Amino acid sequence: MTAAFMDLVDVTIVNIAIPSIQRDAGASFGQIQWITAGYALAFAAGLITGGRLGDIHGRKRLFLIGVAGFTLASALCGFAANPEMLVASRILQGGMAAMMVPQVLSIVHATFPAHERGKVFGLFGAIVGLGAVSGPLLGALLTEWNLLGLEWRPIFLINLPVGIAALLLGRRYIGESRAPHALRLDLVGVALVTLGLLMLLYPLTRGRELGWPLWGYASMAGALAVFGVLVVYERRKAVRDGSPLIEPSLFAVKSFAAGIAVQTVFGVALGIFFLVWTLYMQVGLGWSPLHAGLTGVPFSISVSVAAGLSVQKLVPRFGRKVLQAGALLMGVGVLLYVWESHRYGLAIASWQMALPLVVMGAGMGLIVAPLTDAVLSEVPREHAGSASGLINTVQQMGNALGLGLVSVVFYGVIGDRLTPAGVGPAFVNAFQHALLWVAAVMAVIFLLMSALPKRPAQQAEPVH
């Protein structure tokens, strides 16, 4: 849980500190882009491989290597002498996160019996909610405090004590687990997955800044062809020696295939919402990072409370309907936010945002915790790492797709001709437009959820 929290905070904490990094480190706009995109690309490209390495060499071992590497990379980021070193350290940090994060879900899946996993995933959902909103808040506080005159550097250095604690506690308390049959790493599969993901995610991440060049569209189309080759190769590999990178039999498990689709589309919704929300508050309304961070506290609390309730009380009684209710609730919260933003315009206050944020947070909490359990519930334990890596990867892909769509659904509405006086109204209008897209995505998620199992698998297993 500590590792999952560190990764979630690290993804969001940097965005708040970007103006400070640009000013203090003298980073160019391209370098600033790579400080965020470099981490995301290295993370997404390495997740499936990281998960499979855990299956082969031991999940505890890979987890501890990932935590140690992530902590070291955080120190290198914090002590970076120039923007180039910071970018390289961020790419290393993303790669180490890809070793660490897939082990979290697979260790849970391999360690706990089915009837106990729900409670653990409830806690995981609460951590997700807390990490998503405490990152910007923590980033704002550390940047504004300017501890010891270090400017933005404490946002990375804060990982050092947390990482060291995770390393020491992990060594003592986590039990080792691996796939029961001796697997070998599928290097061709690793190359194809990495190439396909980079061809898809790089143009999405950099497209708007580069003016959506033709090669970007060609690269994304080429990525689909690479994924097609990957599917054919992995099927043959599974038949030949039973050691593919991505286990094709996983997609024969209906709950896994449906859950992967929901995770991808949910990632798109979150990718759009969190970025446009930050831009709306800080650029459109002119709020300080701290003001914007504090505004998100009701959302964070709501996600955490709903996540705990959904897994422990609601899902055992109502099953899949809880997740569908979460999708509807989140959609209602989004529409309520659009209405309030339209009604109050630039004069809107934080307390007026609290109601839609609480409703949205409750909806998200009902989804994030039981969804992970629903996706993994029928997966064989020996493929836990591969499945966990896939879950994280498709969510990252969805996020990147959402961030790419922000160029269309948000910046596309603003246009290029902006006068200083018109920035506020233009951003408010674009925010409302983007949120209508998020509401539409939530409706798609609601429909996709009908393919999930009606009841979690652990209900069918005896309690020992």
Automatic annotation (TrEMBL):
Subcellular location: Cell membrane
Keyword list, A-Z: Antibiotic resistance, Cell membrane, Membrane, Transmembrane, Transmembrane helix, Transport
Membrane association type: Multi-pass membrane protein
Signal peptide positions on this chain: none
InterPro entries with a match to the protein in the record: EmrB-like (IPR004638), MFS (IPR011701), MFS_dom (IPR020846), MFS_trans_sf (IPR036259), Tet-R_TetA/multi-R_MdtG-like (IPR001958)
Gene3D superfamilies from the UniProt entry: MFS general substrate transporter like domains (1.20.1250.20), Multidrug resistance protein D (1.20.1720.10)
SUPFAM superfamilies: MFS general substrate transporter
The organism's place on the tree of life at top rank: Bacteria
Major localization class: membrane
Transmembrane segments: 32-50, 62-81, 87-108, 120-142, 154-170, 182-202, 214-234, 255-280, 292-310, 322-339, 351-376, 397-414, 434-452
Residues annotated as domain Major facilitator superfamily (MFS) profile: 1-458
UniProt-recorded name of the protein: MFS transporter
Species for this entry: Streptomyces sp. 900105755
